[in-house]
Structure formats: structure tokens, C-alpha cells
Amino acid sequence: MALGRRGSGAPKEEATTWRDQLSALRNLPPFFRLIYRTSPSLTITNVVLRVLQAALPTAILYVGKLIIDEVVAIIGGQGDTTFLWQMIALELGLALASDLLSRAISLVDGLLGDLYNNRTSVDLMRHAASLDLYHFEDSEFYDKMERARRQTSSRANLISQLLAQFQSTVTLVVLGVSVAAFEPWLIVLLIVAVIPSFVQENYFNQQMYSLTRSWTPERRELDYLRYIGASDITAKEVKIFGLANFITDRFDKLSMDYYWANRTLSIKRASWGAFFSAISSLTYYGAYVLIIFQTINGVISIGSLTFLAGAFRRMQSGLQTILSRFSTIGENALYLQDLFDFFAIEPLIADKGNSLPFPNPIRTGWEFENVSFAYPNSETPAIKNLSFKLPVGQKVALVGENGAGKTTLVKLLARLYEPSAGRILLDGRDLREYELSSLRDNVGVIFQDFFRYQLTARENIAVGRIEEIGNQPRIEDSSDKSLASEVVSTLADGYDQLLGRRFAGAVDLSGGQWQKIALARAYMRDAQLLILDEPTSALDARAEYEVFQRFTALIEGKTAVLISHRFSTVRMADHILFLEYGGLVEEGSHEELTALGGRYAELFDLQAAGYK
Ligand SMILES: Nc1ncnc2c1ncn2[C@@H]1O[C@H](COP(=O)(O)OP(=O)(O)OP(=O)(O)O)[C@@H](O)[C@H]1O
């Protein structure tokens, strides 16, 4: 964990530049395509509403000028009262339309944002699921995923920013053209007033992005601490070991470090912001005074004075908004890069084209040829130069002490990882030549650390072959064979009972009961190769005996790999592989290995002695 890596207000890493921000703007067209794909009708409606809304400020100001000039004319005895009333009605109509349009725009923005959020979250989940376990071993991958995940919720407002930018630009152009018709020098004054403020805004946005980005690992750590501090899974240990203070202090320290780094930047940003906005106000009042003098000198009418003063103020704030929004959009476009980067990560384990369908039935079986494997970021290989055969229909047990490489071997068989050296053959062809989906379909693995889904009992069993979730007879048959039906019969809602502790009405199970449920997944799976990693470790002696009685039916006619520390399980196997430090040290039947008097026999005797 990264705690203590930084002091307060630590220097920022990965500073981004103008160039980064400009080049990130190229993310906007694909982003806009994403929005449009989310809902073409809402996107088009939004644009149309905004074009209408964009023209209104100028129209309102101009009608205001006509009203004032008409009032002045009436006072002078030359005006037309009917025209005045018509203009007042028009002004009211425009004001009502403007209000209606803004409400409609924010409604459409909100709906579009929600849809975009949903869609991107689903895309993210799908993409994450398509990636390899390799990626999940890598902390940088988690950082990327975290940044991408945050995009979905915070980037939705980029949609309205982009569309609002379009709207403000149209408003500014319309206002600009009408102001230039009266006083072109006002446009020059306007640009001079706003540019410095834009530059500072932009600078601080980049700084903020760099800060947020460089703190991604710490933010993930904060999320993790928040989770372990208050979760159903950790609550027991947190209480027993009295970890609450340890966790909250750690959270407190890290979150304060982030606060201080953020605070320094926020203060600088606010101070400079105040300075430049004072300059803006000065320019506005300068322009105002000039317009007033022109009116006094009779160069322009009183109506034009109000029009120009109002238009200048609107243009000034409009231009400021456009420019600062431009830098926010640039900053958001940088964040978008994280999202697109995440989507660009490709799975390493994938079909290479012309893949073979998985053989059905398998003819000869598997063969490991000098297979070695090291986990990413690990120096020591978990599997070393391993060669053995796994003939079709054979029941093989993997035995060895903790860390010997048994689970790793299973992951290689299921192609969750690929060998770093050597080959795994199936019916004489490299495993990589087979279609990945059909391989996964034909291999069933129940891992030692199987997952306890906080879902119903039915769903927990059906995950073994989720497409069969509606097949109640199959679910019940699997439960009978794994003894899960005994567990289900004690549940108030039977198969519909929610399991776990997280949701209202859920019931938690004991370790052994969960294992029976997990075992039912193996029966649901009914694959050609069945791999069971410690399938009975949590079962009591009677349950284990009964499960074994049924096991024979489960693995009848199939190839099975069993991993177990219990020799009662191991004995069932036709063939036993004894692993040590990732290598094969002994193999044979139980009788052969006990007769050999080697490592297997030694462990067997140790366990047997425990029962004497
Ligand atoms: N995800 C991982 N990243 C890095 N190293 C790992 C990872 N998983 C396991 N290892 C290492 O690989 C080696 C083999 O682990 P493996 O889980 O295959 O052992 P095992 O024989 O199944 O052990 P056990 O009986 O305790 O389940 C161990 O040294 C372990 O530390």
C-alpha cells in the first residue's frame, strides 16, 4: 500500500501540458459518437432546443432597446403606443420561451446523461470481463480501470458542457454581429479583458487533472480502506482484532494528505481567479462609461445604451464561460483518454483465427510438455518444466504442500493463463489452437476460493451453467448429488432464498453448506473435464463420505482433476501427481506411491498418524 508515500502538498507527478490537452480534444468526436449512439433522438432534440435558445438573449435585448426607444419617443410626443404594447408582449413571450427552453434542455441533458452513464457502465463491465487474469494481477490495470470507472459518472456532464458550448458560441456570434454593427471597438475590448483569465483557468485545470491522476492509487486505497472498515466480510475480524482505529487512522491520514495537496492548489486557483475577475469587472465598467458618454453626446439612443451595455455584459460573461468551458472540456477530454485507454486494452488470451472447436468427445487427452509458468511480476516460476499425461477418462489427483503449484496447474489447464514455456496439448494439438469459448464450455473448475454470490440459492447453483437457470429439474438434480438440497430444504424460501449477509432477508450459510452449494455447480456444469480444487475441505466427515459416494457418478466417464490435502479424496484417483516447488517429483497410483516410500508416503503417514 502506498501510505506514507507522500507528505502534505506533495509534488505532483505526470504534469500535463497544453499540448496534451489540445491533443486530447481529438477524443471529442468519438465521445460525441458515443453520446449519439446512446440516444440519437435525445441528442438531436438537445441540439435543436439549444439553437433556439441561443438566439433568444440577443432578441430579448434588442426588443428591450426598441421598448426603451419607443418610451422615450412617447415621452417626446412622437411614439406609437400600439407598437410599444406589441413589443412588451413580444418581450414577455420571448422570456417565457427562454424559461421553457432552459427547462426542456436541462431535462433532456439529464436523461441523456443517465442513459450515457448506464450504457458506459455496462460497456465497462463487459470489457473488464473480456480481459485476462493477467490484467487483474496488475495494479496499474486497476488504476486504469478506476479512472475509467470514474469517467462514467463524472463524464456525463461533459455531454451538457459540449452542447452548452455549442449553444454559447451561437449566442456569442449573434450578439457579436449585432454589437459590431453599433460599436466594433467593444469587441476588441472584450477579447483583451477575457484572455488572461482564460489562460489562468486553463493552467489550473491542467494542474488539477495532474493531481487527481497522480493520486489514483491512493484514491483506490481510500476506497479499499472504506470497504474493509465497514463490510460484512471483514466485520468479524475488525471487531475481534480491534482493527477499527488502525483502519480509520490510516484512512484519516491518507485522506488528509490528499486534502492538503488539493487545498494548496484550490487556494492558488481561487486567488488568481478573483484577481482576473476583478480585471474583467474593470473593463466592463470602462466600456460602460464610454457608452454612457456617447449617449450623452447624442451619438446613440438611450435604447442603444441599454442594448449595448446589456450585450457587452452578456458577451463578456459568455466569452469567459466559453473559454473556461473550453479548458474544462479540454481537461475532461484528458479524462476521456483514460476511458478510451481502458477500452483499448486487449485480452492477451484470445482466439488467433481459424480456431478449432473443442473435440467432442476428446480422443486421447491432455499432455503437458516441459511446461513452465511464472506469474506476472513474480521472479520465481510457480510451475517448472512440468511434463505429464492426462489421458481422457482418467481421474487424477494433484497432491503437494501449500504453494506447490497445484492451483496454478489447473489455471493453465483451463487456459486462464498460458505457459511461459513449453506446451499443453489436447488430442495432440496445442491448447491455444482451440476456440476459447468452446474450451471454457467444456472445462468446469470449482475453485477452492469459489465465490459466495449474494444472490438466491438457485442462482448460486445455476452459475455452474447459467444458461440453464430456468431448468429447475437440472438444478434440483445437481443439488441432490452435491447434498446442497439438504441445505436448501432448511431455507425458508427454498431455492428463492437470498444467501449471504448483505441484503435484507438474506440468510448466511456455514462454510460446509456453502461448499455443498458450490459443488452443485460442478454437477450443473457437466463438462468433459472437471476440476475440483479442495472440493470437500469444509465438509464434515459424514458429508464427505456421502459426497464421495455420489462423486463417482459425477466423474463417471469424464476426465477429472482433484486437488486435495485429504488422502481420503486422493485415494479415489486413478493416478496421483505429487508436486513440489512447481515440479513433478512422484507419480503413480496410491498403492504405488505408498509402496515407493517417498514424499507422498511420508505425507500420507503423517496424516494417518494424526488419526491414530
Ligand atoms: N496470483 C499470483 N501471483 C503471483 N504469485 C502467485 C499467484 N498465485 C499463486 N502464486 C504463487 O505461485 C505458487 C504456487 O501457488 P498455487 O496457488 O498454485 O499453490 P497450491 O499448490 O495450489 O497451494 P495450496 O495448497 O496452498 O492451495 C506459490 O508460490 C504462490 O505464492
From TrEMBL:
It comes from the Bacteria. Gene3D superfamilies: ABC transporter type 1, transmembrane domain, P-loop containing nucleotide triphosphate hydrolases. The keyword Membrane applies. Residues 366-606 form the ABC transporter domain. SMART domains: AAA. Keywords: ATP-binding, Membrane, Nucleotide-binding, Transmembrane, Transmembrane helix. This is Vitamin B12 import ATP-binding protein BtuD. It comes from Neolewinella maritima.
